[in-house]
Amino acid sequence: MPVAKNLQEKDVTSTQIFMSDFQILILLMSAAVLLVCFSQKTRIPYPITLVIGGGLLSFIPDVDFSYFDPNLLLTIVLPPILYHAAFWTSMQGFKKHYKEICSLALGLVVVTTLVIGCLFKWCFPDYSWALAFAFGAIVSPPDAAAATSVLKRFPLGQKLITILEGESLVNDASALVLYRIAVAAILSGTFSFWEATFDFFYMALGGVLFGTLLGYSFQFLSRRYLDPVVGVFSSLLIPYIIYICSTVLDISGVLAVVAAGIIASRIIFKHQTSLRRMLGHVTWDMYVILLNCFIFVLIGSQLDEQTATMSWDQIFRYTGYALLFTFVMFVIRLIWACIKGTKVYFHTQKDPELVQILKDGVIIGWVGMRGIVSLTAALALPFNLADGTPVAGRAEVIYIVFCVILLTLVIPGSTLSYLIRWLKLPTLPQNDLSEATRKNLAKVAQEEIARLKSTNSVSDEEHLLLVDYFHNRYRLWQLSGNHHQLESARKKVVQTQRRVLLEIWEQGEIDDKLLAQIEHELDSEETQTAKVEI
Asked: How large is the average pLDDT for residues 361-378?
C-alpha cells in the first residue's frame, strides 16, 4: 500500500497548492472590486488605484503573489485585450494616420530601445550589452490596456485617440521581437544584425498574414454554422488559438491577433445578427474589464517580492535610476512626436495649425504608460546562461521595470487632466456626421414604410403607427443628444413603469415568467444607449 499512500499524499499536496492559488486569485479580484469602487468615487483612473492597492496587498504576511509563469500570464491576458482593442479601432482612421502610428510603434520603439539600452549600460557598466538592450526593449512599448483605460476619461480629439490606440496595438509586436533578439544574444553571447533584421520582418509579416487567414476562416465558420450564443463563446477562444498557433510557428502572435480583430469587426458589423452583436459587445466588455483589473492589481502585488532581497540603499538607488529612465523616455517620446508632427505639417500644410500639432505632440509624449507586457517580459528573462551561470542583473532589471511601470501609470494618469486644461486643448466637437447619418436613416425608414403601404403589406392603421414610431424614435435620439434633461426624463418614465410592474407582481396579479419577459423589455428600453465600462 505504500504506492497508494504516496499517490494520496501527492493528491492532497496538489489540492492544497490549487486551493492556495485559487484563494490568492479570489483575494486579488475581491481587492480589485473594492479598489475600482474607490477609483469611481474619487475619479482617479482605476489602473493607478489598482497598482497602488496591489502594492499594499503584497506586504500581507504569508501570502505569496509571485508564483506564476510570466509566459502563461502573457498568453492569458494579452490576446483578448489586443483583439478587443483592434475590434474597436477605426480602420479608416488607422489608414489615414498609418504613418504617424507606424512612426510611434516601430521607429520610436527602436530608438527608445537603443537610447535606454545605452543609458542602462552607463548606469550598470558591469552588465552585458545584451541585457541592456533587453531592458530597453522591455520598457519601450506603451501598454494597450493602460492607454485605453486612461485616455477614455479625457475629451481628446479623435485623431489623437486613433493614433495612440493604433500605436498601442502594434508597438507590442515590435518591442517583443526586439526583446526576443536581445534574449537570444544573452543566451548565446553573439549577435548578427542581418539575422536579427530577417527575424524581425519574418515574424511581423508572418503574423499579419497568418492572422488575416485565420481571422477570415473563423468568422466564416462562426457566421455559417454557429448560433449567437455559441458564436459569442467561440469568439473568446479565437485570440487564444491564433496567438498560441503563431507562437508555435515562431511568428508575431501580437500582429496576428490584431489583424484577426480588425477583420472580425468588419465582418460582424456587416454579416452577423443583431442578437450576436449585442451579446458579444456585453460579454467582451465585461471580460476585458475583468482582465484589466486582474492585470493592474497583479502588477502592484509584485512590489514586496522585488524588494525582499534588497537593502534600503539599493532600493533608493534603483528607484532613482527608474526615475531617470522614465524621464528620458518621456523626453524621447515628446521630441519624437513633436518633430514628426512638425515634419508632416511642413510637408502637407493640410493639418491644423502648427501650435495645435505641437500641443498634440505634448499629449502623445505624456501618455506613454507601461503595463503588463513590460512586467511579464522582465519576469520571463532567463535565470541562467547556457553554461549554468546566473544572468547578472536580472533582479535589478525586474525591480526597475516595476518602478517604471508604476511611475508611467501614476504620473500621466494623475496629471493628464491638468495638462489638457493648461494646453487649452479643444474638447470633442459635436459629431455633425452622426446627425446627418441618423437623418438619412430616418428618411430611409419613411421610404420603406411607404413602399410597404403601396404593396398592401401593412394596413392603414399599421402604416400610421410605423410612421409615428420611426419619426418619434428619430426625434428622441436627436433631442437626447443635446438635452440631457429629456434623456433623464425618459429613464425616469421607464423606472416608474418597472416599479408599478413589480407592485403588480408582488400582489400576485402576474406570474414570474411574465414579470421576467416584461422587465427584460423595460431593461432593453432603459439601457439602449449604455455601454459596459469603468
From this structure: 81
Burial of 281 (0-12, 13-18, 19+ CB in 10 A): middle
The one-letter code for the residue type at 191 is: F
Distance CA 211, CA 207 (A): 6
Asked if residues 155 and 427 have their Cβ atoms less than 8 Å apart, the reply is yes
| DSSP code string of 171-183 | HHHHHHHHHHHHH
* Contact present, 171 and 140 (Cβ < 8 Å): yes
Residue with cell 513590460: 374
Q: What is the 3-state secondary structure (H, E, C) of 490-518?
A: HHHHHHHHHHHHHHHHHCCCCCHHHHHHH
The answer to whether residues 387 and 187 touch, using CB atoms and an 8 Å cutoff, is no
Q: Using one digit for the tens of pLDDT, what is the confidence trace for 451-484?
A: 888 888 888 888 888 888 887 777 777 666 555 6
Q: Of 35, 68, 37, which Cα lies nearest the Cα of 52?
A: 35
Residue 203 β-bridge partners? none
* Residue range 481-509, pLDDT digits in tens: 555 677 677 778 888 888 888 888 888 88
- ∠ Cα 258 283 221 (to 5°): 60
Indicate whether this model's pTM tops 0.85.
Answer: no
- Give the cell for residue 91: 480602420
**3 state DSSP class of 351:** coil
Q: Is 497 exposed, middle or buried (0-12, 13-18, 19+ CB in 10 A)?
A: middle
Cα–Cα distance, 101 to 169 (Å, whole number)? 9
Grid cell of 499 as nine digits? 416599479
